[in-house]
Amino acid sequence: EAQVTQNPRYLITVTGKKLTVTCSQNMNHEYMSWYRQDPGLGLRQIYYSMNVEVTDKGDVPEGYKVSRKEKRNFPLILESPSPNQTSLYFCASTPSGYNEQFFGPGTRLTVL
Amino acid sequence: ILNVEQSPQSLHVQEGDSTNFTCSFPSSNFYALHWYRWETAKSPEALFVMTLNGDEKKKGRISATLNTKEGYSYLYIKGSQPEDSATYLCAYSGSARQLTFGSGTQLTVLP
Predict the structure, then answer these.
(1) Per-residue pLDDT tens for B6-25?
(2) Most buried residue, A1, A30, A46, B45, by CB count within 10 Å?
């Protein structure tokens, strides 16, 4: 089944404890992105990647890192999480800029 | 950060009513306009991706139009059903790289 998977789905952590949210897609898509969703603000792009080893900042990259060592994986890294990073995170992939985005199931992160 | 506005923020309609929402976006540097349907506790799912001025797309009772010169798109739902209740998101792309989402229109269809 064609899909985007994310892990974990739910995470409660404390300020400053490094964490990684994994994202994997099995559709051989070139483009992958990370978004965060906060009430009243809609989805905001954190980082995107156009291919292996090609990543760039989106609208809200501060406090996040990404890597794209393989085409299928695009992990989101929070080196030192803070409470303002409490949010719902979505990973998405697409074959090109003209195509629809396929979203993962979301990761709800709470930073205490 | 680009400005993508959706209106209304929310609306309630009766089952069987037809309704429409608006998405406005920058009229310069247009690449694509996306519409997504997002049900509570699920992930957004694509409805349409439109790339040309004057594009009209249709999927069942849902259709969309695009005016890139003036920077707006309409989403129409004909004969709304309770299962249409969801948040409808539009997203503007000025390049292949980035997608900027509006904050959505939350539709509730009352039986």
Answers:
(1) 999 999 999 999 999 999 99
(2) A46
